[in-house]
User: Which sequence fits this backbone?
């Protein structure tokens, strides 16, 4: 029993014996064939018989590798010595010339076997590279037809699962990782696995062996684009601890690069679709504003003119004034829409000059007499207030919208204060109303179509204060809003010191 066990332990399996003995037998057969051919041709002389062994050495090295090529070279030298050098059928050499011939035959066969083995190795490497490139190209071709992250993840997980005989999952998102796709579909990630995926996306390093993430069931690899890590590819096997051989890692890296390119392409396509939607929306908006500007303002102007001519007639005076007032308000809304379109399009053109704020405030109050009717207007503009260098037309629009907003949101008979003062070289122009602005939350009055209690959304288009913000930014003026206690709001236009000039500076400039 003990001898049987020892014999069983020392004897290799049959498959291993065949793997080792097969190339040896084939190599000896080729050397033997060369020897037989040499014996057949020996009657012509033995001077060229040694060349017959070169094809056998080449064949052995090319088919079986360098080790068998060396064995073929040694076998050929011994066979030539045994059968063709004096004395024959011995390994002794009596003539120095034969010794040189055997030595040269061995060296030539050895060099030839090395060259053939190197060619075989290069051919195999080329085959491996060609197969890898074909695999990468196949994945890239399949990813090219995908139009969403889910489709990209599905193709990538299926292909990697097939190539590496493992489960695969694609995870996106750093702070909140989300499974995009998995193969098989029932694959699930534990919180520890998700933490490992998040760490990989954040650090750009593969998981496995790092502190805090090394015990996760999945091994995650970063899917890296040119700018950042866009996802993590997780791979796991059900019954094997070792995932990859060292030579498989370059292929995996190249495949993940293709996945990253596909995800980046999908992101850019999504952004491009958004840009196209914005362009189409802008085109429709421009068409609508053009229609409003040209098709509505002309009849509206005619209505205002006709209603003005009815003043003093036998008609109802109050009704006529109502028509004129509402038509003027509608015209102002249309002007606001067109001005907002100019701001968004960056088409605001400045024509600056020295402006007296007293005159600017007076002009705005005069244009809003009907809107501000019933509200006491208290104007406090000190003497000697510096002039400001600005565009008078745009400043007029800002003041009109601020005063109109104050008039519509102040309580009945509540006063409106217009105050100007100097502060550290700047000029501050404030408009204070007595409305209920900013009572129920933080102030966001300058947003387009802003909706909050006390905003100009009530009874208006929601554009007035946004126009103030846009025009003031174009003019270089800072526009801010503050709460007033106990009620109301204060809107402030701050003209920086660089925009102010004294009366003497105006005279000198002239």
Assistant:
């Amino acid at each position: 029993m003990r001898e049987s066990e020892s014999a069983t332990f020392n004897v290799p399996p049959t498959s291993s014996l065949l793997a080792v003995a097969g190339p040896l037998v084939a190599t000896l057969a080729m050397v033997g064939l060369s020897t037989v051919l040499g014996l057949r041709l020996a009657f012509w002389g033995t001077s060229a018989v040694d060349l017959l062994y070169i094809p056998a050495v080449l064949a052995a090295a090319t088919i079986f590798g360098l080790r068998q090529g060396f064995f073929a070279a040694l076998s050929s030298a011994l066979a030539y010595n045994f059968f063709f050098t004096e004395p024959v059928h011995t390994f002794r050499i009596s003539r120095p010339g034969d010794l040189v011939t055997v030595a040269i035959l061995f060296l030539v066969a050895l060099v030839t076997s090395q060259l053939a083995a190197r060619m075989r190795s290069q051919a195999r490497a080329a085959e491996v590279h060609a197969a890898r490139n074909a695999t990468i190209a196949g994945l890239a071709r399949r990813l090219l037809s995908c139009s969403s992250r889910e489709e990209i993840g599905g193709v990538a997980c299926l292909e990697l699962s097939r190539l590496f005989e493992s489960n695969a999952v694609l995870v996106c998102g750093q702070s909140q990782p989300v499974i995009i796709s998995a193969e098989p579909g029932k694959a699930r990630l534990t919180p520890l696995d998700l933490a490992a995926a998040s760490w990989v996306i954040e650090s750009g390093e593969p998981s496995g062996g790092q502190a805090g993430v090394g015990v996760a069931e999945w091994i995650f690899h970063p899917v890296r684009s040119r700018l950042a890590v866009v996802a993590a590819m997780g791979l796991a096997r059900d019954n094997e601890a070792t995932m990859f051989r060292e030579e498989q890692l370059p292929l995996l890296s190249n495949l993940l690069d293709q996945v990253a390119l596909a995800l980046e392409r999908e992101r850019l396509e999504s952004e491009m679709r958004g840009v196209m939607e914005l362009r189409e929306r802008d085109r429709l908006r421009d068409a609508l504003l053009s229609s409003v500007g040209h098709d509505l303002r002309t009849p509206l102007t005619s209505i205002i003119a006709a209603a003005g001519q009815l003043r003093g007639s036998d008609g109802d005076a109050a009704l006529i004034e109502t028509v004129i007032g509402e038509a003027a308000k509608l015209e102002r809304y249309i002007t606001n829409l067109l001005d907002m379109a100019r701001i968004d399009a960056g088409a605001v053109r400045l024509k600056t000059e020295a402006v007296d704020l007293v005159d600017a405030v007076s002009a705005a109050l005069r244009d809003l007499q009907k809107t501000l009717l019933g509200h006491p207007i208290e104007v406090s503009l000190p003497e000697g207030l510096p002039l400001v260098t600005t565009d008078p037309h745009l400043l007029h629009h800002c003041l009109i919208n601020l005063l109109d907003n104050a008039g519509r949101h102040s309580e009945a008979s509540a006063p409106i204060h217009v105050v100007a003062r100097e502060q550290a070289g700047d000029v501050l122009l404030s408009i204070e109303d007595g409305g209920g602005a900013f009572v129920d939350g933080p102030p966001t009055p300058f947003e387009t179509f802003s909706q909050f209690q006390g905003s100009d959304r009530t009874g208006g288009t929601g554009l007035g204060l946004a126009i103030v913000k846009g025009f003031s930014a174009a003019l270089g003026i800072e526009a801010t809003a503050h709460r007033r206690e106990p009620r109301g709001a204060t809107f402030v236009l701050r003209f920086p010191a660089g925009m102010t000039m004294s009366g003497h500076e105006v005279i000198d400039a002239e």
In short: The longest strand covers residues 229-236. Residues 1-12, 209-215, 439-443, 448-461 have pLDDT under 50 and may be disordered. Residues 203 and 268 are 23 Å apart (CA to CA).
